[in-house]
Amino acid sequence: MYQTTNLKYSQWIFSLVLLIWSPGEVVAAAVDQLRTFIRETQTVSAHFSQTLLDKNARNVQKSSGTLEFERPDKFRWIYQTPYEQSIVGDGRKVWFYDHDLNQVTVREFNIAIGSSPAALLAGNSAIEDNFELIDLGIQDEIEWMEAIPKNRDSAFEFIQLGFSQDGVLQYMALRDNFGQTTYLTFSELIKNPVLPDNHFEFAPPDDADVISE
């Protein structure tokens, strides 16, 4: 049961991260970093470490893995620890694969991201149509911004992004409506790597349990 819950949690975490690949007309220092990052970056590969804290700031889980993106709507988000999970989007469908359970959940792209901040990726609206963007200033040489959903029904209170002063995305913080906070640290980030043409395709294993939603 816990592992299944962890998979569902991973599904909306990947959606949140897609925020950083979506264009928008915004202002302020850290948000300008975001705009420059988007303008200059078509593909990305990176490692990530993720920490989930409950509402009492107790460590619930740590995980890590790799991610790759090709703007605007192709991605591979691979959890390597503590459970092996793959989330792959090809622009039409999103595949969630739990390796241990040998279970695949497939959703239409627009449906998969429709209830999260990543919905702005699928449409033509600017970021500020869905979020209030706030420049939080510089702390320890990291430029921070906060995105607060304008939709009162959103499952998230805020998303914070931290950029180095040379424009490299390094941190993300997410707070949900249950008081849980997820911290992500990005490392070994490479801008515009050459990725294989079929890199964002996914074929479920023959013996996997496939669920379409």
TrEMBL record:
Which compartment or compartments is the protein found in? Periplasm
Q: What CDD domains does the entry give?
A: LolA
Q: How does it assemble?
A: Monomer.
What species is this protein from? Answer: Nitrosomonas marina
What is this protein for, i.e. what is its function? Participates in the translocation of lipoproteins from the inner membrane to the outer membrane. Only forms a complex with a lipoprotein if the residue after the N-terminal Cys is not an aspartate (The Asp acts as a targeting signal to indicate that the lipoprotein should stay in the inner membrane).
* Protein's UniProt name: Outer-membrane lipoprotein carrier protein
Alphabetic keyword roster: Chaperone, Lipoprotein, Periplasm, Protein transport, Signal, Transport
Is the Signal keyword given for this protein?
yes
Tell whether Protease is among the UniProt keywords: no
At the top level, the lineage of the source is Bacteria
